[in-house]
Write a structure and sequence with these properties.
4-stranded mixed sheet; alpha/beta; 519 residues; 6-stranded parallel sheet
């Protein structure tokens, strides 16, 4: 079978000694200690990822494909906006009654044979999972794709305890084999193309066929053969959940590959880690989200595999079920009447697929397992990292505020408004004693913007920039304006301002406009 060489030397990865093949793949990030803080600002992260042209091509192709499929599926739904309204209402109900719903959920899980644990933070959640696994006397577990366990860095914690966690979702397995980090909440390996995946399999998967090609069918077949043995021998499985139902104690997983079904039915013990916000009040509410989630996430009418389990059923599936309800910053987010809406997220990723910033920079630029627009509002609230000495505080600025993310969100999270709100919070907690350049700039422009007359005079002066423009834009200005033009162009001033156009086209209102301008 043919092999594809992308021009990358065999030793170009982070572990050259383990790369006997020319796979053409490189891992550019290290697994961090804190998955919500990788230690760099968005600006620095984006500067690095923008140089990775292969990643940008991979990402652009994938997001365009998903957007196209989503658009087709949404077009089929005459009641799409009604579903969004209903989902938003359910999520508002959950956040308004979260303590009572959590108690109801715990009672129903327990009544049906499940064991409920509570974790205040990531460390407690990881410790509970590790203790349960050790009590079973095993050192290997299988995992269903889970953002909650990514958030807690569970795999690395288990590794430090001598326990190996095997990711069984194809994309998660690719990321794990490559010692990489996910770059999307639905498609973690979206930054990889199939030739890179082939290289990763050949270099890191012990039982990969030596003549493996980069056709999707062969890659999927190699992964299936590799994972089947692990499914059949696993005694313990770890999962997240898409939603829990307070009314019945039911937990659910929506997935497309069948690996989840294997993990949820074959092992003797199942451990589910769930963020406390992932609830719906009634079983009937699942109907709403089961229509919104697959269409928004992958452009499918329905998930190929939708698994639901309620406690323990004798003789069917795992005979021991542990549910860990994790806070990890969620109650702090809940206390913000505006920012709390981020907790409505159902992890569909549609905001990432439409975001022009994410499409260019990729997920690794955000320095968090929650990238894109939702990550820009969720990560700062989970960490409360809004002070200027915390790199997380830059995430709310990772947006053009174009509003596309809010328009596609299936639960109608007003992401642009929350971004602006969090920007204001970062200013409120600013700790710098000496003002920086932006503080000075805002101080200088405030009097100008307060006065209509001064503003009108200033706009006339700006017309002088037309003398140095090139094709309607200015590429370079002296300091301090160079802080802006160093990375982007400035549009040249138009020949006619809006006020001038209005006076010319509406002469009858000139007197009224002049009066308002003078105020």
């Amino acid at each position: 079978m043919s092999q594809t060489f992308l021009g990358m030397p065999a030793g170009a990865g982070r572990r050259p000694e383990t790369h006997p093949h020319t796979g053409g793949w490189v891992t550019t990030v290290d697994v961090p200690e804190d998955p919500l803080r990788w230690g760099t600002t968005f600006t620095k992260g984006a500067h690095r990822t923008l140089q990775n042209t292969q990643m940008r091509r991979n990402l652009g192709h994938a997001t365009r494909t998903i957007r196209g499929k989503r658009a087709m599926r949404v077009e089929e739904m005459p009641d799409w906006e009604d579903l969004r309204d209903a989902a938003s209402a359910v999520k508002n109900e959950v956040m308004s009654n979260l303590p009572e719903l959590l108690e109801q959920f715990e009672a129903n899980v327990t009544a049906r044979g499940g064991i409920v644990h509570w974790a205040r933070d990531a460390a407690e959640a990881n410790a509970i999972v590790a203790e349960i696994i050790r009590s079973k006397g095993v050192d290997d577990v299988v995992k269903v794709k889970s953002m909650a366990t990514q958030e807690t860095n569970l795999n690395e914690h288990l590794k430090s305890e001598g326990i190996t966690a095997h990711e069984t979702d194809l994309a998660e397995m690719i990321v794990q084999l490559a010692d990489d980090m996910p770059s999307h909440i639905v498609v973690p390996a979206i930054h990889r193309n199939r030739s890179e995946v082939r290289g990763i399999f050949l270099d890191r998967m012990d039982d990969a066929p030596e003549d493996l090609s980069d056709t999707p069918e062969e890659l999927a077949g190699a992964a299936r053969a590799h994972l089947r043995k692990k499914f059949l021998h696993a005694k313990v499985a770890v999962s997240g959940t898409n939603m829990g139902v307070a009314e019945t104690g039911t937990v659910s997983i929506f997935e497309s590959e069948g690996n989840g079904r294997m993990c949820l039915t074959l092992p003797d013990t199942l451990i589910t880690l769930m963020g406390i916000e992932k609830l719906v009040p009634r079983f009937q509410d699942v109907e709403i989200f089961s229509q919104l989630l697959p269409r928004s996430a992958t452009g499918e009418r329905m998930n190929p595999y939708t698994s639901m389990w309620t406690g323990v059923t004798e003789g069917d599936g795992p005979q021991e079920f542990h549910l860990i309800l994790m806070d990890n910053g969620r109650t702090k987010a809940l206390s913000d009447p505006i920012g709390r809406e981020a907790l409505h997220c159902i992890r569909c990723g549609s905001c990432m697929n439409i975001c022009p910033v994410y499409q260019h920079t990729g997920g690794h630029a955000y320095g968090s397992v929650y990238p894109g627009p939702i990550g820009a509002i969720l990560t700062p609230q989970l960490t409360q990292g809004l002070s200027d000495d915390d790199p997380v505080h830059t995430l709310p600025y990772a947006s053009t505020l174009c509003g596309a993310c809010g328009e596609v969100c299936p639960v109608k999270i007003d992401i642009p408004t929350i971004l602006v709100h969090l920007r204001a919070r970062t200013v409120d907690v600013k700790r710098k004693i000496l003002p920086d350049m932006w503080d000075v700039a805002m101080g200088v422009t405030t009097p100008v913007m307060k006065s209509g007359r001064v503003w009108a005079t200033a706009t006339k002066a700006i017309k002088a920039t037309r003398l140095i423009d090139r094709d309607g834009k200015i590429g370079s200005l002296p300091f301090p304006a160079s802080m802006w033009t160093g990375t982007r162009d400035v549009p040249a001033a138009p020949a006619e301002s809006f006020r001038e156009w209005w006076r010319r086209t509406h002469p009858q209102s000139t007197a009224s406009s002049k009066s308002k301008e003078d105020k």
